[in-house]
Amino acid sequence: MKNFVLIIELGGPCMYPIIALSIVGLAVVIERLWFYRKSWVNPGPLERKLGELLYKGDAEGASRLVRERETSLHRLFRAAVDHWQAPPDALKMLLEQEVRHEIYRWEKGLMLLSAVARVEPLLGLLGTVLGIVEVFRAVAATAEGSANMAMLASGIWEALLTTVAGLVVAIPAVLCYTWFSSKIEAAEEALCRGSDFILREKILRG
């Protein structure tokens, strides 16, 4: 803990916004992981079970099935089952609206994580530039401009701490953003597939 505080002090004032944004980014990552874990389900088995119930005309069983969990696909199928008597065109519009709503839920917070990934290296660079400016100001203020290499090296490595800190936060943020984006694509594909499945069942079963 002492070393961590020392590094912050050596890094200068830019270390504080870097740390604050890292906390924000970590909070987004944790919240998104929790949401994705809660909202994802393998679409294949769920579609098969629902298809069997619709084939049998078991409306009550279908209603129970789509209320078992709070995944995005369960919510999509729940809206379809609750409005099963609606005309195909109206049901299609409802499903499209539900898909958009669910994708919005999956994308929530990612713009903030992307901003953290972009801003952190810039803050680190700003801190380094300010540190180097301070080093050379101190060198210029030294009697007759005399300064040994040890003094310069010490000042420059301290100035570089903010760049290191910014990159340490930005790299995982970029990786998490990329992984989350791939999960969103998978969720969108599952929801569109689920919507097509419901419309196909509606046409077949009436």
TrEMBL record:
Q: Name one GO cellular component term.
A: plasma membrane
Q: Is Membrane among this UniProt entry's keywords?
A: yes
Q: How does it sit in the membrane?
A: Multi-pass membrane protein
Membrane-spanning segments: 6-30, 110-136, 156-180
Localization per Swiss-Prot or TrEMBL: Cell membrane; Membrane
Principal location: membrane
* Residue ranges that the Swiss-Prot or TrEMBL entry lists as coiled coil: none
Provide a GO biological process annotation.
protein import
Task: Domain (MotA/TolQ/ExbB proton channel): give its ranges.
Answer: 70-188
Presence of the UniProt keyword Transmembrane in the record: yes
Record's Pfam families?
A: MotA_ExbB (PF01618)
Alphabetical keyword list: Cell membrane, Membrane, Protein transport, Transmembrane, Transmembrane helix, Transport
Protein family per UniProt: Belongs to the exbB/tolQ family.
Question: What is the name of the protein in this document?
Answer: Biopolymer transport protein
